[in-house]
Amino acid sequence: MKKLSLLIVLLSALYGLNAQKRLTTAKMTNGIYSIFNVGLGKYMEVNEAWTAPFDDEKIMTFSSSSNNPDSYFFIDKKTKYFTIQPMNCKCTIGPSGKHHLIPIVVTHTTNNLTACDLLFEPVPGKKETYYIKVPKRNTYLIGCKNTLNTNHNLIETNTYVDESSRKIPDNTRQQWKLVKLSDHYAYVNPNQKFMIKSATSDHYWDLKGDSDNSTNKNGTTLWLSREMLHTNDKRYKLKRDQGNWVYIQVQNGGRNINVDKGNLNRKGQPLELWDRKSDLTGQRFAIIPTSPTTCVIVTYTGLALQDIDRKIKQTTLNFTPRQHWKLIYADGPNKGKTYSFKKD
After folding, report:
1. On the chain, which terminus has fewer CB atoms closer than 10 Å, C or N?
2. Closest by alpha carbon to 140, among 162, 159, 118?
3. Helix, strand, or coil here: 292?
4. pLDDT score at 320
């Protein structure tokens, strides 16, 4: 009888420890994620179609597809909490007023929010899912049944998770799957040739000039072109440099894409072709995936490469559509296909 009682005590203690463990902070690393709501079967996204009444801020809703920058977020881990930053705008996610979840521009406070309002805590749930807690409000994110229209469900906060009894109800609309796309930076096969295409048009990176011979020289600027002549001017290798950086080598002559050293911080500075230099700061770039098939490319000083009047120039990183690029296989068995940061 004593053995049975002892077994019951041990099992009770073990159950208590397991229950405690289920509601502790989840292990999570920085990276780019899609955030999937189990109950609705949809992905969190920034809904550009709805702005009012939240001071022109965009409302967080859902999409049936994760294959676009609106549905990808950079999760930045801070101690046991994290922030959620959309990949298509320079902002972070936070609650508006009492309920709705919206992107908040981080350069100023909005709706009386403080930095603590923008912090979330991942709480392990069932079958590799999470509950996402707003610690300051002691509430949890939930995908709403009510919709703005047939396609857009709102995301709100509530207290359905009962922490006092340590029981988590089977409300699947409070359960989220965090699907990691990549770390903050990505690399590709350094021996693979790519064409670099605008994600918003059918224009490709190209060297300004009339022939391969005239473009193969230091100082040649880059622009965007639809023409498929002089294809070596449009083929590049993205080779791994030190740390998170890559350098971009054009296949016409083997020179590198360069930002003039004296203009590394100058917005609007165009890219040019140049020999490999001993000081590589102007030839270092980082690739940040914004969806499985798109990315932004940033310079050593943190500026983004953008399509500005059909020229490729560096400017403030804000994830606008013209800062998104696609890598297109230029040779090999996948020639003509778009590179996938998730599968390739």
Report:
1. N
2. 159
3. coil
4. 83
* Structure confidence by residue, pLDDT tens digits, 144-182: 766 554 455 667 666 554 444 444 455 788 888 888 876
Q: Backbone phi, then psi, for 160, in 5-degree steps?
A: -65, -25
Choose the weakest-confidence range: 20-34, 101-115, 266-280.
101-115
- The one-letter code for the residue type at 184 is H
Pull the structure tokens for residue 149: 């229209």
Domains identified in the chain and CATH numbers = 25-182 (2.80.10.50), 194-329 (2.80.10.50)
Beta bridge partners of 291: 294
pLDDT of residue 108: 39
Q: With contact defined as beta carbons under 8 Å apart, do 133 and 123 qualify?
A: yes
Choose the weakest-confidence range: 8-17, 57-66, 143-152. Answer: 8-17
DSSP structure string for 135-182: TTTTEEEEEEEEESSSS-EEEEEE--SBTTTTB----GGG-EEEEEEE
pLDDT recorded at residue 95: 73
What span, in angstroms and rounded, lies between the C-alpha atoms of 82 and 78?
5
pTM of the model: 0.65
Q: Which amino acid is at 234?
A: K
Q: φ, ψ for residue 53 (rounded to 5)?
A: -100, 25
Measured CA to CA, the distance from residue 205 to residue 224 in angstroms comes to: 5
Nearest to 252, CA basis, from 316, 191, 322, 193: 193
Residue 79 near residue 28, CB atoms below 8 Å: no
What average pLDDT does range 8-32 have in this prediction?
43
